[in-house]
Specification:
It is a single chain. The protein has 376 residues and is an all-alpha fold. It has one domain. It is 73% helix and 0% strand. It is built from 14 helices and no strands.
Length: 376
């Protein structure tokens, strides 16, 4: 055996061990994120129970929650699952349009499982727009995709979801203001938010169209802001290119499904707690979209969104006990379904790519399913 052959074999073994190390590290991180999310769910339920039990005036909200039937919970989980599938469709279409995750013998379902891992591991606020990079995007980076590429595509997904959210506010706000939909017709609560969104979207398009000049002006004094302007411009351009692509309908439809069915769970929560009257879907949607913006406030267990949506529902005329109970029930379903889906995805990933315990025996036996780095 020549020296070159020995060197090649040693290099191959080192590469194999590195891929195995990468795979195990990846799976450990996914498990860690899922565990943290499970703890957040438990903490959320305990905190809510104590608040509803101890705060005067909210006793009826706790009674409403205790009377919810199991069949409704199962049905709501089914609706929420459809919502999350919409997110998975958009995530795969934007984060991995080249199907890189399917290459190298990784399996045709790996992209969906990575997306579910992102849903289960974090980055969730109503509408899915105001979060960190996300577990799934982080996994793409750990698999070899450059951070700039991952970040740009993740921001494009967030921008798409934000745009869908904004257009929904315009649609329901104008519909309520003109009497097309039943419910609140106060212009300050309906038409004003719609106008704010229109101005915001127009401003984003204006900035994106002049991004190069603005970035040059800001580069020296505000480098982070300059980078944000460039990222926004790229996301707008990516959305425009995506809309011209044949597969864009599926991506946009996925974003609409993600939002619409998630709002339907909140609407159904009022039926589950036997609220009288049940707010219209347009009112629930406006409260969901506007109140959910409070989810960007760094409070534990996404309590900002819970408080924001509950407050908006009360402002729109819903009883405070019914509003709090419905939002708490919706939020619990919103935690539970992605956690279950992400946990199942993790189990599939672990089965495909090997156990987490180390050892030479694993080095010999787990090579066939190891994750190869993504192609550039």
């Amino acid at each position: 055996m020549t020296g070159e052959t020995v060197t090649a074999q040693a290099s191959a073994q080192a590469s194999k061990r590195e891929r195995l190390r990468r795979t195990r590290s990846l799976l450990r991180e996914v498990r860690s994120h899922l565990t943290k999310r499970a703890l957040k769910l438990i903490g959320f339920l305990v905190f809510v129970y104590l608040v509803l039990k101890l705060v005067p005036g909210l006793e009826k909200a706790l009674e409403n929650l205790q009377s919810v039937q199991l069949r409704w919970v199962i049905a709501a989980m089914g609706v929420e699952t459809i919502s999350e599938i919409g997110y998975v469709i958009s995530w795969r279409g934007i984060l991995d349009p080249e199907d890189l995750l399917r290459q190298g013998g990784r399996g045709k379902h790996l992209g969906a499982r990575v997306a579910w891992a992102q849903l289960g591991g974090g980055m969730l606020v109503p509408g899915g727009t105001l979060g960190s990079m996300g577990v799934g995007a982080w996994m793409l980076h750990r698999l070899g995709m450059s951070m700039d590429r991952v970040g740009e595509r993740q921001f494009t997904l967030m921008f798409l979801n934000s745009t869908v959210d904004g257009l929904a506010i315009v649609f329901f706000g104008v519909g309520l203001a003109t009497g097309l939909f039943g419910g609140e017709d106060n212009l300050l609560l309906t038409l004003l938010p719609a106008l704010v969104v229109v101005v915001g979207l127009a401003l984003a398009l204006f900035i994106a169209g002049r991004a190069e000049r603005l970035a040059k002006r800001l580069q020296d004094r505000r480098p982070k802001l300059a980078k944000g302007v460039v990222t926004l411009a790229r996301s707008v351009q990516n959305i425009k290119q995506m809309l011209r692509h044949r597969g864009s309908t599926k991506i946009v439809l996925g974003a609409v499904i993600y939002l619409g069915f998630d709002m339907a769970v909140l609407q159904g929560a009022f039926v589950a707690i036997d609220a009288h009257p049940v707010p219209s879907f347009a009112v629930v949607s406006m409260c969901y979209l506007i109140g959910g913006l409070a989810g960007s406030i760094p409070l534990p267990a996404n309590l900002g969104a819970v408080g924001g949506m509950s407050a908006m529902l009360i402002v729109f005329g819903t009883g405070h006990n019914e509003a709090v109970a419905a939002v708490v029930l919706y939020q619990a379903i919103g935690y539970l379904v992605p956690l279950i889906g992400g946990g199942i995805a993790y189990l599939f990933l672990r089965r495909e790519f090997g156990a987490l315990d180390s050892g030479e025996a694993d080095d010999e036996g787990a090579g066939g399913g190891m994750l190869e780095p993504l192609s550039p």
